[in-house]
Design brief:
Radius of gyration: 35 Å
Order of helices and strands: HHHHHHHHH
Mean pLDDT: 85
Low-confidence stretches: none
Helix content: 55-70%
Number of helices: 9
Strand content: under 5%
Length: 175
């Protein structure tokens, strides 16, 4: 039986189970070696090496999840500015990020305003052509019932016999 790849295993696990998985990997690496363990779980040797090193130095605490991002972002838009942007957007709901910045002299950049609007759910995805077509089709279908408006092209077929006679005369001349 082939073992699953580590990233697939961990993706659906809770924090406790992630910890126990890491601990079992670290213990196996201490027992059997880093390279065979990395091969068995189809993961990087450096990751296994890091967990073994942390497990030796810090014990169980070394295998817990750690935040990889910074603890503080000094240039982040303040909560007051974000709330002001959201209030302005509620008043002028048709304005985009560029127009909000220009019209209301906001300090935040256009990208920051756009990020705030997206995170608060105040933007709509641009509809693609097929979506617009389907929407229009649904509107038209609701407006007109089937067979309500019909157009029929009528062609009388009396001229076909005359045409066949002419074609027959041309063919006899050619032979």
């Amino acid at each position: 039986m082939r073992l699953k790849i580590y990233s697939n295993i961990v993706a659906n696990l809770s924090k406790d189970k992630r910890f126990s998985t890491r601990k079992s990997i670290a213990l196996e690496a201490l027992e059997k070696g880093i390279k065979p363990t990395a091969r068995r779980f189809n993961m990087s040797k450096n990751t296994v090496r890091t967990w073994v090193k942390r497990f030796r130095s810090e014990g169980n605490d070394g295998l817990m999840d750690r935040r990889s991002g910074p603890k503080r972002v000094p240039h982040k838009t303040s909560a007051e500015q974000e709330n002001r942007i959201v209030e302005i957007r509620s008043v002028a709901s048709c304005y985009g990020a560029k127009r909000l910045k220009h019209e209301f002299q906001l300090k935040a950049s256009v990208g920051a305003i756009q990020r705030i609007l997206c995170s608060r759910g105040l933007t709509r995805k641009k509809k693609r052509r097929h979506q617009k077509k389907n929407d229009l089709r649904a509107i038209k279908a609701a407006r007109y019932k089937s067979l309500e408006k019909m157009e029929i092209d009528v062609k009388y077929l009396t001229d076909i016999l005359r045409w066949l006679a002419e074609v027959g005369q041309i063919l006899t001349r050619i032979k």
